[in-house]
């Protein structure tokens, strides 16, 4: 300052000095670093700095005055801001830059520099004034933000890639799955169809996409019943399950298709799409039909010679001579027993086909339930003298049902209980009434059934693996029992433990008025 | 005592012979294996009862039965249908049969059913 005073205004009056002192104090009070440089001297040296500038840079005044500002940049010389600054100085323009500067101890700080040129009366630039603020904190926040943005962008790219990959993955599953799949919008227009659909129905994507489902082919899906159900899927979320369509389709002819339709939901994003899965069951149905036909014909054919054998057998029993030996009588009665067993097996086979084709006939009549049970057990006792069949409890019920069928169920459960208990000598039959149901339990102490097999023994032709060799049978007895009980409105189930025994129980519904008054 | 006359018809020779043996002690039995001959046999023999299988080649039992029931002179002859088929009973009653026996049958049941229709 002194230098300046001496050079330009050697004779200053007192008030001017006071003013300058005040202004200097004001500049020192500023929190912004302020410097003045002399543009008329070579290399534009700093001729003034305020206190804040000292604090900001860590340098003393005497280390600052006479230097060009660039000393604050240290070795960081290739900044874009520096070029901007250089140009502004050369052209004598004002400018604002954000520049990396270094304190005396080497710490980086971001300096926001406002550069302003001072001109003399000839409009020559004589000085520059630089007002600077340490904006490291703001800059750091900005940089952090930028960094976070970059991370986020990277993550978005990665997520998008993953999403696209999983979409492609799903699409490839949908395309390769061997089931026809189509997606419909809320107006039952086809949004997409997978390759298997196009292959199955021998149609192109153009013929399918964007069309109304009911307009596809020759109107094969234009079925009033189906229409109603499909249109109910979105509002009610009730799926269409196993809807059978028999139709003469274009290109592929007469086929039976099984249709399943569900509302698609994507994490609550949309609920207005329907997925339809179509399965061609023509062949399967044909095979099943042929098998049922075969069983029906086979059992019918087997019955013809059996009728003759049974007839002769009965005549033989009646014509056994008075004086014939016990051995001969035994042979005749054993033969009769086994003919009857053969007859039962064939009847069972026929029953299965009847059940399969839905032809099982129930001849319902009121009968005394407890009496029926007692008689059935008596018959079983005579045929299995080594086993004790205990009967406990009672129902006191008159039951309205097909007595011969219920006898068949009981006989089946009893003979199973005996058959699969080679090391036990007794079976328990327990009768009770529970609410408005008759309950019958047949309890044995035999080999039991594993949890896994318990689920399957009521399926037809299922036989438990390890007993298949030791115990003959076709695996249809329990299937028939289950169907008979179901046809009477009851349930049949098993509770069993391997090597401890089994408890087969069934319930049958009775009406109050059919219970005997005691 | 004059024996009642029964015409039995089944395409299976074994069954035909066996039925004849069951019935011949109490009835005069005419056995016919060929369903095509049944109708002429009926017209010729005028049996008191007809016992007939359902599933026979060429002409089935229910077809013959329908013809019998259409004929004024024959429609009063009781006809029993025998069958091993599941829906035999339904078919027989729809065709107008007077009785039905399922195969394999019980000998006593056969005799009882026959006797109830020709006392």
SSE run of chain B = EHEHEHEHEH
The beta-strand count of chain A equals: 17
Amount of helix of chain B: 40-55%
Report the principal-axis shape of chain B: globular
Low-confidence stretches of chain A: 513-518
For this entry, what is the oligomeric state of its chains?
Answer: heterodimer
Residue share in helix of chain A: 40-55%
Give the chain pair forming the largest contact, with residue counts: A-B, 21 and 19 residues
Largest beta sheet of chain A: what is the strand line-up? Answer: 2-1-5-4-3
Distance between the termini of chain A: 130 Å
DSSP summary: helix tally of chain B: 5
Q: What's the tally of helices of chain A? A: 15
Q: Give the distance, in angstroms, between the N- and C-terminal Cα atoms of chain B.
A: 13 Å
Unreliable sequence segments of chain B:
none
Task: Explain what the structure shows.
Chain A has 518 residues and is an alpha+beta fold. Helix content of chain A is 43%, strand content 24%. The longest helix of chain A is centred in the N-terminal third of the chain and has 41 residues. The radius of gyration of chain A is 50 Å and the shape is elongated. With 119 residues, chain B is α/β, with parallel strands linked by helices. Chain B is globular and about 30 Å long. Classes of the chains: A alpha+beta (518), B alpha/beta (119). Chains A and B meet through α10 and α11 of A and α1 of B.
Quick rundown:
The complex is a heterodimer of chains A (518) and B (119). Chain A is α+β, with helices and mostly antiparallel strands and 518 residues long.
